[in-house]
Every structure is written in C-alpha cells, then in structure tokens.
Design goal:
Layout (H helix, E strand, L loop, with lengths): L1 H21 L3 H21 L3 H46 L1
C-alpha cells in the first residue's frame, strides 16, 4: 500500500514541477512552488530524513514562498506606479 502512495507522491511532484515551469501566471507559480515544497517535505519524511523534511518545509516552502509572494506584491505595486507615471506624462504632453 505504501508503494502506491510513494509512486503517487512522485508523480504529483513531477506534475507540480512541470506546471511551475510552464505557468504564465506568477502568482499561480508561487502557490504551486509552495505546494511543491510541502509535498517534497513529505517525500523526505518517507525517505526517513526528518531533519531535511523540516528544513524543506521551513525554508523551502515557508521562507522562500513568503519572499516570493512579497516580491510579487512589490512587482505589482511597481507596475501600478509606472502606469501612474505614464499617465501623468501623457497628460503633460497633451496640455503642453
């Protein structure tokens, strides 16, 4: 029964990795990356490496995922700021 679980886990990890690499939506890619890290931690537990599993869950999913989400949020606010600057430049060009 555990062999079926292990094979399913491996297939899901490969599927997630493929979708992370081919995703055009950055938010979706980050969420999939976090999911991948948590399932990878489960894989390390199955390989009887709990120390690596804890590190993967804490650093790989938790910290890195939070940093990716923060960077994604900052990229979004930067794009909004660029649009505001572009619009103000257009208004100046129209008026002048």
């Amino acid at each position: 029964m555990l062999i079926v679980f292990d094979i399913t886990l491996c297939l899901i990890l490969v599927w997630l990795a493929w979708h992370i690499l081919t995703s055009h939506d950055l938010f979706k890619a980050v969420v999939l990356f976090i999911s991948f890290g948590l399932l990878m931690a489960l894989g390390w537990v199955r390989l009887q490496a709990p120390d690596i599993a804890l590190a993967e869950a804490a650093i790989g999913s938790g910290l890195t995922g939070a940093l990716f989400l923060s960077a994604l949020r900052r990229m979004g606010s930067g794009r909004r700021r660029e649009r505001r600057i572009d619009r103000s430049e257009e208004r100046q060009n129209e008026g002048g």
